[in-house]
Structures are given as C-alpha cells and as structure tokens.
Amino acid sequence: MTAYNDGGRESSPGESANGAGSAPAAPRDDAASPGGVTRRGFLQSIGASGLAVAGTSMMSAAVLADEAPPATPAPAEAANASGPYTVHFIVNGVAHKLNVEPNAVLLDVLRDRLHLTGTKKGCDHGQCGACTVHVNGVSVNSCLSLAVMHDGDQITTVEGLAKNGKLHPVQQAFWEHDAYQCGYCTSGQMMSAVAVLHDSRVPADDHSLREAMSGNICRCGAYKNIVAAIQDARGKMRRA
Ligand code: FES
Ligand code: FES
C-alpha cells in the first residue's frame, strides 16, 4: 500500500480524522497564538525562506538540462577536510573537489561539507524520500549513495531548483497549495515531483502521479495538497 492513496492520505485506526495521528489537532490557519502569530503566517514565513533557499523516478539527463548550468568554482571550503579519496562533482552548477572517506554518504557530504541542508535525512534507509536529489538528471536517495560513486557527476539539490531568483513552478505550486505542514519531507517531495513531471512514462492522471510519488512519505499527511500542487505545476509547465 502506498502513502499516496487515492482520495488523500491513508489513516490508521488510531489516527484522528484530521490526519494528525495521536498528536493534538492542528490549529486552524487563522488561529493566532498569544503572541499574535498565525499558523498560516508562520508557515508562509518559513515556506518563503525555505522555498526560496531551496529555490524535489527516472528521467533522462537531457530533460533536466536546465539543472546543469556551466560550473563555477567552489568556495574554498570543501577540499580541506580529510579523506583518502578525491572526488570531483558539480552541485547546483558549482564545481567541487572533495577529499572523502570511502564510506562517506552523499547525503552527509551535501549537508555537512557543502552546507546544503535543504536535503533532509529522514529514515536514512531509503524508505522515506526526504533525501531525494537528482544525479545526472535521475532521482536518487542520497542516503543510500556513497560520495565516491559520484566522481564527475552533475548533482542537483533542492537549493538548485530556483533560477534567477524565481521559484521553480513546482516550488511555487507547493507554496500556493499549502502542500506541507512541518515541511520536513517537502524538499524530497519537490525533487521527486520535478522528476516525475519530466518523465514521459508517467501518465498525467492523479492515480499514476500518486504511484510515481509513492517513494516519498509525508508523516503529516499532506498528500492531498501535494498532489494538487504537482498537477497545478504540470499545467503551468505545459503552458510555459
Ligand atoms: S532519508 Fe533517504 S530515503 Fe529516508
Ligand atoms: S509536511 Fe511534515 S512530513 Fe510532510
């Protein structure tokens, strides 16, 4: 059973109707805290910064050519750390040369060495999709991939989706559709969504979309809005 069930999120017997599980019911969007901060306002503030900084199957590298701008030199940071293996790869258009341990995981290198913390560590076992990045145009769970395997690769993280200060249509649609609650899964959802929308093998109907996105788990159960956002982005990308 996939988490992207038709008709919205799946529920277990112990979960409440609002999808919040055993946690207290979420406040209404317009319910202000004692400090005057509304839930919507809070989410918009973190969403704007998160999506902007960020700015989520298989597909050809060609269809994501816009993710591979000419490489620019990396800041001096990365090669300084220790490690017996040297890898060169391009991340979001920036060329990096890194010394890494043989067991260094790509996710950890992206987050801890390159400080690209938009990519999240959820399960660390290839089961949740929070760590999804694109490698040469293909979606990869970066928690399952060793950095030494990526010498010469083009990598795109969620920070590389936006172009020239403009959100990717998928990011914009997630924003407009409130397609997140805590936001922890969101970068992985968006990376997978971009990949799915470029994959001509995935039909455009909701059922096929849910199936294609089933590797990305949202513990908050925002599936209904995520599907709506991706379909909205599909339409806008077609018209662009
Ligand atoms: S953290 Fe990689 S799949 Fe969950
Ligand atoms: S928005 Fe919280 S896990 Fe998806």
UniProtKB/TrEMBL annotation:
| Chain intervals for the UniProt region annotation (Disordered) | 1-38
Instruction: Using the UniProt record, name the top-level EC class of this enzyme in a single word.
Output: oxidoreductase
Q: Where is the composition biased (Low complexity)?
A: 10-36
Listed A to Z, the keywords are: 2Fe-2S, Iron, Iron-sulfur, Metal-binding, Oxidoreductase
The cross-references to Pfam families, in alphabetical order and at most eight, read: Fer2 (PF00111), Fer2_2 (PF01799)
Q: Which EC numbers does the record give?
A: 1.2.99.6
One example of the protein's molecular function in GO is: 2 iron, 2 sulfur cluster binding
Coiled-coil stretches are none
Q: Which residues form the 2Fe-2S ferredoxin-type domain?
A: 85-161
Top-rank taxon: Bacteria
Q: Which cofactor does it need?
A: [2Fe-2S] cluster
Name-wise, this protein is Aldehyde oxidoreductase iron-sulfur-binding subunit PaoA
Species per Swiss-Prot/TrEMBL record: Paraburkholderia solisilvae
